[in-house]
Amino acid sequence: MSAVPEPDLHDITVSVNGDERQVTVESRHTLADVLREQLGLTGTHLGCEHGVCGACTVLVDGAAVRSCLVFGVQVDGREVETVEGLAAADGRLAPLQQAFLDSHGLQCGFCTPGFLMLATAYLRDEPEADAEELRDVLASNLCRCTGYQGIAEAVTAVLMDADDD
Amino acid sequence: MKPGSFEYHRAHDLDEACRLLSDAGEDAKVIAGGQSLVAMMNLRLARPAALIDIDRLPGLSHVVIEAGALRVGALTRHVHLERHPGVLPGFEVLRDAAGLVGHLPIRARGTFGGSIAHADAAAEWCVLALLFDARIRAVSSRGTRELAAEKFFEGLFTTALEPDEILTEVVLPGGFTNAAIREFSRRHGDFATALTAVGWTAQRGRIGRPRVALGGVADRPLRSTLAEELLEGEKPSMELFETVGRQVADSLSPPADLHASADHRRRVAGVLTVRALAEAAGFPATVAMEADR
Predict the structure, then answer these.
(1) How many CB atoms lie within 10 A of CB B125?
(2) CB-CB contact of B56 with B16 (8 Å)
(3) Structure ipTM
């Protein structure tokens, strides 16, 4: 009978949606695993677990990354933002989330957290309204339901609103 | 879809990284951005016993031109090349290539050195390393070596790196006056069905020192010395480029897989070669497109 190896555990400190969290993680657990299983933040979804679908997209130090391709232990000392951090504390939706509703940018909702975080990172760069560039960015993630147009409309609506400010 | 167990060690400087890697033995792997490695580990195609994390090592993420050569630190993220604010005279094709690597979130984490060490036959940086006759710096507890790109890619995901070596820098000794990269994939961000990169130095209106490199058409990136011989000393013309494209296609024996037959890869590689040559020559896009037959 082969022995089960002792888990390789590491203590990390990570800021998650503005809260500093101290967690003990097993090295083989991805950031997605740690967020979902240890921190109870199940808004981040697992679609493929090999970096193709983008449903697991979160922000690490402001950059959109695939949380299934980062080990939890690698974000020690970093700032992580997940979909749970978008809405206000009183439940009011962020403008991007409201735009997804208004533009029918979601149906089953499985890909939605990944798209919201991808779009959040993109909008923070304050890009010019460029339909082709937006398509290029949104092509990072897969959606089986919507056909993507509603998603593009939602992000464009927020971008145009931002331009008006 | 969960990786097997491994021991994780984070290195704080290059010496520590080398020591950790050699102590950990042959079943250890270096990890930085992890965009290729973690995917393989999740699928259990890779099961390293230990990971040495060099993701935060200082001093390895530079992009600098010195005496006409481009030095790229191994930890340079793809996105930094894509968005590089400076002019890189002679090396502009790297900026075009950077935007072709995967998707934006992959480019935020993945590294130049990691891509070359991983040696996927369809990787843009591997093809460009061949195109530019790059020199690859490898460091271990035993010292430093410089490896020539043309001897670096030994087979499927296999390089000349020893298990205890860390790739720290890639030097491209000189640029091109004319260069282009073209790739085809069935979906945005997929691995290329085929990709072609070309470069030359214009000498009195003729093609000097041409280089043609291909990806996705073998178990490793390839240079086409056949194409280079056909181009050397010639004036750029669509007729020349079409001949080169046909002969390059005929010379290839690409693999067949789920994504493309061998014949399809061969034809795509030929077309991309023509288009890349036309783009490098500055011919209008419509002219290059008409060449597809």
Answers:
(1) 29
(2) no
(3) 0.94
Rounded to 5 degrees, what are φ and ψ at B4? -70, 175
pLDDT for B293 beyond 50: no
Measured distance between the N- and C-terminal CA atoms of chain A, rounded to whole angstroms: 67
- Chain B window 79-108: which residues touch A at a Cβ cutoff of 8 Å? 103-106, 108
| DSSP string covering A67-122 | GGGSBGGGGTT-EEE-GGGTS-TTSPPPHHHHHHHHTT--SS-SSHHHHHHHHHHH
Residue B197's alpha-carbon distances to A49, B124, B216, B288, in angstroms, are: 31, 9, 12, 15
Binned at pLDDT 50, 70 and 90, residue B35 comes out as very high
Contact at 8 Å (CB) between B236 and B254?
A: no
Q: CB-based contact (8 Å) between A77 and chain B?
A: no
pLDDT digits (tens, 9 = 90+) for A41-88: 999 999 999 999 999 999 999 999 999 999 999 999 999 999 999 999
Give the predicted TM-score (pTM) of the model.
0.94
Q: How far apart, in Å, do the first and last CA atoms of chain B sit?
A: 43
B273 token code pair: 């070669």
Beta carbons of B44 and B80 less than 8 angstroms apart = no
Which of A33, A34, A36, A65 has the highest number of chain B CBs within 10 A, making it the mutation to test binding with B?
A: A65
Whether residues B34 and A136 touch (CB distance < 8 A) is answered with no
Q: Are B130 and B59 in contact (CB under 8 A)?
A: no
Give the nearest partner residue to A54 out of B8, B53, B105, using CB atoms. Answer: B105
Query: Is B48 an interface residue toward A (CB < 8 Å)?
Result: no
SS (H, E, C) A110-159: CCHHHHHHHHHHHHHCCCCCCHHHHHHHHCCCCCCCCCCHHHHHHHHHHH
CB contact under 8 A, B7 and A28: no
A140 contacts chain B (CB < 8 A): yes
> Do B42 and A46 count as a contact with CB atoms less than 8 A apart?
no
For residue B188, which residues of chain A lie inside 8 Å, CB to CB? 136, 139
Question: Across the interface, do A69 and B3 touch by the CB < 8 Å criterion?
Answer: no
